[in-house]
Amino acid sequence: MRLTPLSTTILLALSIASTSCLAGDAATNANTASTGTAGLTPKQANTYINDRILPPAIEWHGKSEALLLGVDDEWATPFEKDGLKTSPSYDETFAWLDKLIAQTDKLKKVSLGKSPQGRDIWMLIASSEGAYSPEVLAENGKPSVLVQAGIHSGEIDGKDAGMMLLRDIVLGNKGVLLDNANLLFVPIFSVDGHERSSQYNRVNQRGPVNMGWRTTSNNLNLNRDYAKADTLEMQHMLQAINEWQPDLYIDVHVTDGIDYQYDVTFGYNLAQGLSPASYAWLEKSYRPAIESALTSQGHIPGPLIFAIDNTDITKGMSLWNPSPRYSNGYGDTRHLPTILIENHSLKPYKQRVLGTYVMLEATLKTVGKQATKLKSAIKQDKFNYPARVTLTWKEVQQKRSWDFKGIEYHMEESPISGNEIVRWNGVPKLYPNLPVIGDTVPDISVTRPSAYYIPPQWTEVIERLHIHGIRMTRLIQPTEMKLQQYELSSPKFRSKDYEGRQTVKADAKLESVETKLPSGTVRIDTHQPLGDLAILLLEPQSPDSLLQWGFFNPIFTRTEYIENYAVEPLAAQMLKDDPKLQLAFDKALKDEEFAADPKARLRWFYQRSPYYDDQYQKYPVLREK
After folding, report:
1. pLDDT exceeding 90 applies to what percent of the chain?
2. Which residue in 41, 274, 518, 621 has the fewest CB atoms around it within 10 Å?
3. What cofactors are annotated for this protein (predicted)?
């Protein structure tokens, strides 16, 4: 789940098919008939400990309830056995899954690696051939869908939905789903956070009864870690993506924020991103099929929903253009079509789990039918190599508005906070023609270099690029080259730690240089499938560059100095030897602040002397045209 304050954002589908689904019929006050909730009075729920402080709930029933097994059935999941309101622990989850695996040759289980607390991050491979390795799976030629649950472990809908779906594939009538597609399923990604479970976690969410913690045991947010890859968990996942080569990646979350009618919302990259062919497939082929399946089963699907102002829906929604720190932004950058599911936190757990089941089943069907088109889109994006790459984007109002299926609310003054607070009343309401604001106009962009060069001493940077799967070679001997290098200035460090790092932004000026690169220098060709990812990780003004994440912070440290007693005679000699320098100094003295600062005046000469560190604030990653 992506949390921001009033500027929270939404990935809004803008195709004709999606728009028609969203707009609905304004004459039917918020389109409730298809959900089986028409005519029902919202009421205060009493299933969960936090129900009494949440907005009223609307009782829900849909066709997807037929997917549930009775509590006495031998193969009912722990979720089904315990009243559809709980989710099993780590040990209970894999005990049940191990029992299911023992019934079939279609399921295998592999560990992606250990968590910081020593738990295995398990992945199940479901294929009609019983593949147990990436090589064997690739032999069947079918597209693979990687489904990941519990990246924020309290948002665990995907785990229980996936367990039910695997059960029905193995023992029910859903085995045909594997005829044309493979399923890679990670029931719990943040395994340590999952076991920090309590009924007091996730206060804004309606179930399950006990929920895991948002961050890892190191208190890091995995859905901010895709680009920097600091966590063991993320490093294991990136290695799995590189080895298993999925064709579609699904990241299951539960959202916070405002109240509305949609129960299953999902989104992906934008048309303006680095994977336009994948976007076209997702928008024109995938979304219509998934929304149709969800609607037919009594759910209300929609794009990702994040309001500009949670207290005033009329201000509209934002079109989210995610950066590579997030799963869907990362997928766009590495040309892996990635779906971010955000189920609505205020919907009952049963409704959210069943909606996720329907979406996952429909995904396997759609990917199986559309395998050729999907693989073709991915290939187009991987070998597109745009001449210019956009690093940052500007906000503009979009041409299309949104008829939003919301919930009525009013504002009331709080005696507790002294502020006005929003009160949702549970009554469906259509908010027509809401404006949509999106980051879709290029701001900072760069020309595509043919390659980057990284000196061998930057071992942590090189290791992270290797974890991402970016191809690289090394110079076997010192080499003189004409390259480009950024000179950085005006660095601004974040005042507080963010995700375990001191982040920094700086102005960057590109200059031509002649340099001798040492042996062992890494060369990264940008004309490779992950070339665009390399660019966004290595361009200093990219918001998720390794520079901005703090991997190069030592270059901002001044390590050599000159004493005043030495710089005074040095400056006098420099002025005597260079009349032009005297003119430049006289011009500088016209700045009253500079003229009144003795240290600045001496530093001015030191910076122009041969004693000055010529690598200070020089970005050590060089570019080749």
Report:
1. 89
2. 41
3. Zn(2+)
